[in-house]
């Protein structure tokens, strides 16, 4: 859709594109667009990754480029970008302009069209915020994070060379380097892995953390369950559930036994999913 046709916008940081953000998008209507104020700290859906979680076009503004604007200049900027703008949707805690001194109440004074303010969204009496999702991911509560997100937490990256003992002594894995993303708590997860441009996911068991039993290096590695995977350049991992903490084993044999148990547990967790 051409931006010239846009008559409604939702404004925010929108890192995560979680269920609270989606409530704002639901108020846009047919000719809506999303305005992302990019702080540089987004690590749930960094950069254009947000575009995978909406059908609306997204326009990005770097916070450093607009943080000096007074309220009138901020609204003028939006009107210039969206000449047919009639409606602005924001969250209840939205602030903007120089020193964040303007709120949605000021926006209503500066903008002649409709201002739609969305109240906080709660799940099980807990308000949904990106910082809470980050906290859940950092303690391994991927089930809780996914519930707030409305989708599985997903990281993406380039396939890199591993330590080389997976295929020979343990199980074959795909190793990823995922810059820009918040990485989960160190441990083992039931997950879904997508390779290159594939449309489908592979049931997987994923390890995130330091290889304390072997070389001590940090790794994000996925073992695809029951499949032989050839070479690939890119991959994405969608975390479903935390299985166990990272731990050191006395031997490769003990590690292999733990991995076999992880595979069984991952299969059990992923069995009900329609892939």
The gist of it:
With 275 residues, the chain is α/β, with parallel strands linked by helices. The chain is 25% helix and 31% strand.
The whole-number mean of residue pLDDT values reads 93
Tally of distinct domains: 2
**SSE pattern:** EHEEHHEEEHEEEHHEHEEEEEH
What strand order characterises the main sheet? 10-11-14-13-12-15
Helix/sheet category: alpha/beta
DSSP strand (E) fraction?
25-35%
Q: What are the segments in which pLDDT stays under 50 over at least 5 consecutive residues?
A: none
Q: CATH class of the largest domain, please?
A: Alpha Beta
Radius of gyration based on Cα positions = 22 Å
Our measurement of the CA-to-CA distance between the termini, rounded to an integer number of angstroms, reads: 31 Å
Helical proportion?
25-40%
The CATH architecture of the largest domain can be named as: 3-Layer(aba) Sandwich
CATH superfamily of the largest domain: HUPs
Number of strands: 15
Characterization of this structure:
The protein is built from 8 helices and 15 strands. It has 2 domains: 3-127, HUPs (Rossmann fold, 3-Layer(aba) Sandwich); 152-270, Riboflavin kinase-like (Elongation Factor Tu (Ef-tu), domain 3, Beta Barrel), CATH 2.40.30. 25% of the residues lie in helices and 31% in strands. 33% of the residues are buried. The two termini are 31 Å apart. The radius of gyration is 22 Å and the shape is elongated. Helix 5 packs antiparallel against helix 6.
